[in-house]
Specification:
The protein has 12 helices and 15 strands. With 359 residues, it is of the alpha+beta class. The relative contact order is 0.12.
Length: 359
Amino acid sequence: MAILLRQVVIHELVKEQHEPIQPSNVKKKTLPADNPTIQKLVEGIVDLYGKKNNSAQYGVFETGDARGNFPDAFEGYKGAEENEDNFIEATKVAMTQLYLKAADKPTASGGYILFADYVQNDVRYFLSAMVKQKPGYKITGALKVEDLEYIDLSRLHQAAKVNFAKYEEFAAADEVEQLDINYLSFVSPQNNKATAGYFITAFGCKAGAPSAKATEAVVKESVAFFNANDTLSEHSAELSKKLYEYLDNKQGENQPAKLSEIEHIAREFFSADEADNLAEELVAHLNSDEIGVPSEFSVNKTRLHKMTHIVYKGDDFQLTLDKDDIGQDAGSRFYYDGNRLVINELPDEFKDMLDEHFG
């Protein structure tokens, strides 16, 4: 998808695994944002963000000792005049933080660090992404525009992205409202969190806890995805049931729900020839900025119960009914005919209580 590129620069973090870190190659000037090669590179990175194997975790900046200097640098850049110097200065702060964090990780490796200020779908973002060279190519000396074709766009190694609009929304919200607002996201390899973590900590990222929002969205949006596809719509009710069972099990086990496992559930309904494409589309949809389901999240017990039950609390009586047990046919456990609610198959214990009352 096309983007409006405002500022872009690529620095180099010089670090080989198990070797001492070297001085970073920090550029003094931005790259030409209107250059087609540069635009294609940034669009390629943006397109990878949130896709399968590059799923994003959502969050906010740290507030304590782990915050570092970048969040304040971003705040200063956001409020400053938009120009090359202010952009470069913000990226220099980020590079210093990356250097300090990577230096303490013997197994960490460096790479090219792309910074971009861009607009997509009328939303402005500040992107930081680590990219590597394609196998078989070696970029030496100054990184030139013509060298960008040698950047490997098959996957993101590490990345962080700040949504300007949500950042402002968070700043204007009260403490309760802030719990459901995540203005930044980050991508980090799941198979090597210890090594990859330096990138995330360098930017002062902290995973948020939008458990209620994610718990609801993962079911609602997965069902919507199925309903929008003619071959999948007939399976949306069964998918919903399986997702509720999955979330309930995860909540009971006090384990996080994972997009990779939700994808596996959805794949049961995909045809073999479309499975990979549909799975990638579903994960990208759920993990997008618009929907905001992170790669992992804690299941919100209260929200899950609200989604699966009808709860009524009046002055004279209270009812909590499982939605799956309510129907408009006489054989339903809770039969509703528009005026009356009939309870079939009363539990023995409840019948004993009623017999005792009327006995």
